[in-house]
Amino acid sequence: SGGDQPIVVICTTESNIDHISDALHAGSDEYVVKPFNRDAVVARFQDIRDSKISD
């Protein structure tokens, strides 16, 4: 089921748009640039999880 699929996240200090684009095109679900807001990241993870479950 969709809930069994891993969430792929890149977490880095690299904010270069080419790196972000490459990571997302390679299949990452999310690209988080440090420092980050914990609540915003948790909300994004929940959205990703919910979309994978509904697939």
Automatic annotation (TrEMBL):
* Residues covered by the Response regulatory domain: 1-49
Q: Which InterPro entries match?
A: CheY-like_superfamily (IPR011006), Sig_transdc_resp-reg_receiver (IPR001789)
Instruction: Please identify the protein, giving its name as recorded.
Output: Chemotaxis protein CheY
Q: Tell me which Gene3D superfamilies the record gives.
A: 3.40.50.2300
One of the GO BP terms on file: phosphorelay signal transduction system
> Origin, by domain of life?
Bacteria
